[in-house]
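Problem: given the chain below (587 residues), write out its structure.
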Amino acid sequence: MKTKSFKKLGALLIALLLLLGILPMAAQPAYAAAPSQTASIGVEYSFDGIHDASLDATITPQILSMVNQSDVVLAPTPTGYSLAIIDHTLPAGAAGLDGKTVKVYYVTDSSQTASISVEYSFDGIHDASLDATITPQILSDVNQSDVVLAPTPTGYSLAIIDHTLPAGAASLDGKTVKVYYVTDSSQTASISVEYSFDGIHDASLDATITPQILSDVNQSDVVLAPTPTGYSLAMIDHAFPASAASLDGNTVKVYYVTDSSQTADASLASVAGQAINAGSEAGTSAAPKTAAISVGNSVASIADSDIVPTGANAAAALYSDPGFTASAASVSLSVGSGNHLYIKVTAEDGTTTLYYDVTVTRAGTPSYTDASISPKTTSFDKYAPADVSITLTPGSYTLVKITCDGTDLTADNQYSVSGGVYTFSKTWLATLVNEAHTITFVMSGGTNPTLALTVSDSTPTTVSVTGVTLDKSTASVTVGKTVQLTAAVSPNNATNKGMTWSSSDTAIATVDANGKVTGVKAGTAAITVTTDDGGYTVTRKVTVTAADTPATGDGSNRMLWIILGLGSLLVGVCLQVWRKWKGLRAI
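Solution.
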């Protein structure tokens, strides 16, 4: 009986030692994800080809076999966009994603297709036959290979494309991209050309054609344009374009002969619009034919273009001296009759010539007063509109009309008149573009006064919010810890960027005015941000996990186990004492 009592006491002692942590307890099994099954996968998001780094995220840990499209796409889909492509296959290719970045592309709905015109030029000459249109086209995918010719045209190399691709692609919708090619230097030629007239070589006309793509050389490259007066083309000593490739470094000879069908009329019809009645002089340089005309004071000079011969295809040349040696493009006229024009006319046949001495009388200067306005500059602000009044002093002339930037204005519509005061309606002024304008008072003569008008609009502008985004698609936090959510309103230049944060369950997670989330207890809560302007919202799920449970040997729990152990030991001792006492009584 004593043995049994000691065994029970030993068992109780062992139990006490276990409770006190002196003897080790049996190990409990623990499980963790196999490292080979976890993944760290980066995710990037692009919108119409523009990477939005604020949405970058990392999915970790993640069982590879469970990765799928819903883990990387944004929910809900961003307003105004649709999913275009994910650059990794899911879930079939998920096992290869560990440590990689998945790129998710969104594009604006159908409005993101583009119509881009392309023009091609060769050595500065636009070849309209090659014009093309690229449509439809996702703007972010436009690149050089979409516009250059393949293969490169023979004899040319690409010089420049007048739009940056793909960086500037988003601005190309509806625009024209111009692609320039230049001659490949290995295709150029140096060809000499000589010209002869009735068998006489005119060395002053000798020329060299260079550079030139040999395959493009033809008759029009060597003949004179226009054909020299009195001659017609007789012969070219090379065939074009068949033998062009053999012309590099050689000389092409072009022959002209007198055209017997040319007329011999070298008479003078008019000068400055005035008919010429020439005298009976011989018409030589020593004895030129004489004539006289009169012009108004406004004619300050006479140019060779003011001279009209009578004969078809006849040519007139103007000189400033009676010896017909100093050619002139124009001759200035003084007031009075002391002006002379010395003119040589060559008939169509190229050999018949007549010389003229034309006396020109220019009228004196009349006394006129130009019109004027006051003020000469003014402004109009659409934010504080007011009529604009101008005083016109007509001088020696009368008002014909008023124009604005070349467009005629209508009385009693755009402006009204009271005496010499012209008042422009604020209603009309408000329709003008915000920029500088010129209002012209067109007079019957003299100088036309102009009013410099500046139109502006100082109306304060407000940029409305169109949406809001969060930097994380999901978030997790430990009880007592915090995690930051960052929101961004669209557009970036919105006037009111204020927003309000809220939690669906503050017993699980709370959020402050700046998007800092604090875990309260284990569970999930929806954190929502709402814009003050427009009430746009976006919500993210936040998972709160419990803090780590302190180990068994922690001091805070050891005392409890000691008390429980001592209590159990005391109960056992008391039970043994009672039994012994009961046994003694039985004796």
